[in-house]
Design goal:
The protein folds into 3 domains: 122 residues, Rossmann fold, CATH 3.40.50.2300; 153 residues, Orthogonal Bundle (Hypothetical protein af1432); 69 residues, no CATH class. Helices cover 54% and strands 12% of the residues. The chain is built from 17 helices and 10 strands. The chain has a 5-stranded parallel β-sheet with strand order 2-1-3-4-5, sandwiched between helices. A 3-stranded antiparallel β-sheet has the order 6-10-7, with no helix packed on it. Strands 8-9 form a two-stranded antiparallel ribbon.
């Protein structure tokens, strides 16, 4: 049953609306703007919010503007007895309302507006789900292909995504598709760099001046590649902000996503370069003085019984295993870097390595309940 939040500082109004809506909807009431925000934080986003305009403290326009930012899929309807033109313009422009109803309003008009609002909400959420699933699916396919051709640059994408989303869940944001997409695309700028330079970046090897200039241009390459893809703007913003100094993790979802991604990428660099164990790497990150570090510590290492380290032949690795040793050709060319998470697509590509490499034994990390061959 769709949830409708009715907001008015007059109890008789909210009681009347709840009575009118109770047959077909789950009606929730709040006595004012601040009370409405507290109710939203407690219950989550409703399908529709119906708010009075003139209320003490926070008026309807300010409330709906805030709701638009925090719960963009919630349909916003304004109910007012104020005829002032300026107030109407403010409500429409700032709150981007779906309907504007004037008092007194006939019950059938209220019901019609609510029904239209619920339908609008369903369309928005369906479109959002389709968009997310389509984008994430396309990005995953792209990254899988790139990881096959350039595992050094893109092999860590799955691990970055897994860590970032675990940190996000610990922060109370289990569904954060923008961060998921940004994590998977976090290495996309390296596509323009020579493989030898990517390997230097991966292990922190000293670079020449020219190589440093090339590496510094990788974020611009990412922006150029992703900047014209529709609906990917919030993902690109997270990627851009993650390249900048640490900001407040409380200033909106985009900043939170950027801070999570920045911490996870730095942690991955620490581990890949062998500068720190998981726990020591977290201590290094504590200089950021961010509460996110606690969630990252829990995500990165913390359960010693969760995974086990074993030794298998290269040709016997399974999807989901983490490769803990570099895999190189007999000439020293890096095929797979340590820290690479094995995927089904990679296993298909691995068959071309040659019998000598496939028979070599390497250390892998795998879930304790997974049987290594």
């Amino acid at each position: 049953m769709p949830c409708i939040l009715c907001v008015d500082d007059e109890p008789r109004v909210t009681e009347g609306l709840a009575l009118l809506l109770r047959r077909d909807y789950r009606a929730v009431t709040a006595a004012g703007g601040q009370a409405a925000l507290e109710k939203l934080e407690e219950l989550g986003a409703p399908a529709v919010i119906l708010s009075d305009m003139r209320m003490p403290g926070m008026d309807g326009a300010s409330l709906l503007k805030t709701v638009k930012r925090l719960y963009p899929e919630t349909t916003r309807i304004l109910l007012t007895g104020e005829p002032g033109r300026d107030a109407v313009v403010s409500a429409i422009n700032e709150g981007q309302i779906f309907r504007f109803l004037t008092k007194p309003c006939a019950p059938e008009k209220v019901l019609a507006a609510i029904e239209a609002g619920v339908t609008h909400h369903r369309l928005l959420t369906a479109e959002k789900t389709l968009l997310q699933d389509t984008l994430i699916g396309c990005i995953k396919a792209l990254v899988d292909v790139l990881a096959i051709t350039n595992p050094i640059a893109f092999g860590r994408s799955n691990r970055v995504k897994s860590l970032a989303m675990t940190v996000a869940r610990g922060s109370g944001h289990a569904s954060f598709w923008q961060l998921e997409a940004a994590a998977m695309l976090s290495q996309i700028g390296y596509i323009s760099l020579p493989v030898e330079l990517v390997e230097k970046l991966y292990y922190g090897t000293k670079m020449t001046t020219e190589e440093s200039a090339l590496a510094a241009g990788a974020p611009a390459v990412a922006r150029a590649l992703l900047g014209h893809i529709p609906r990917l703007e919030p993902v690109l913003e997270i990627l851009t902000l993650s390249q900048k100094p640490t900001g407040s993790c409380a200033d909106g979802l985009t900043t939170l996503g950027a801070n999570i991604l920045r911490l996870v990428l730095e942690y991955e660099i620490q581990v890949a370069r062998g500068n720190a164990t998981a726990v020591e790497g977290i201590r290094v990150l504590n200089r950021h003085d961010s509460p996110l570090v606690e969630h990252l510590a829990a995500a990165a290492g913390a359960d010693p019984d969760k995974d086990e380290i074993t030794e298998v032949a290269v040709g016997k690795v399974k999807s989901g295993m983490i490769i803990l040793d570099d895999v190189r050709t007999h000439k020293g060319v890096l095929l797979v870097p340590k820290g690479f998470e094995v995927t089904d697509a990679f296993i298909e590509r691995m068959r071309n390595f040659g019998s000598g490499i496939l028979s070599e034994r390497i250390r892998v990390s795998a879930p304790r309940n997974a049987k290594a061959p």
